[in-house]
Amino acid sequence: MTMDIVVRAVGSALVIVAITTMAQRNAALGGWLASLPLVTVLSIAWLSVDQRGNGQIVRFLTGVLWGLAPTAGLLVITAGLLLRGSIYQ
């Protein structure tokens, strides 16, 4: 692995660890932070650094938009199942 990939992986992992740590202290704030488009912004930054061009970034962002509805559905279903006690008892 090149050093560039290691730096990206460690930087991205640190963001996830920070959000998880915050969620352990304050679940609502952790959830809010997790919902922010931090991964999207990091991905745009990495694509820009790689000089992939605006076309690829726009296609990436379009893919992100298409993923919002399934993500919302998953969150609603999971929250409902947790409230019913159907999962993670």
- Would you count the extended β strands for me? 0
Strand content: under 5%
- Main sheet specs: none
Average pLDDT over all residues: 86
Helix-strand sequence: HHHH
Helix count equals 4
- Measured between the Cα atoms of the first and last residue, the distance is 41 Å
Model description:
The protein is an all-alpha fold. 84% of the residues lie in helices and 0% in strands. The chain has four helices and no strands. α1 packs antiparallel against α2 (27-35) and α3 runs antiparallel to α4 (54-84). The protein is globular and about 50 Å long. The protein starts with a helix and ends in a 5-residue tail after the last helix. 0% of the residues are buried. The mean pLDDT is 86.
SSE topology:
Elements: H1 3-25, H2 27-35, H3 38-49, H4 54-84
Helix pairs in contact: 1-2, 3-4
List keywords for this structure.
mainly alpha; 4 helices
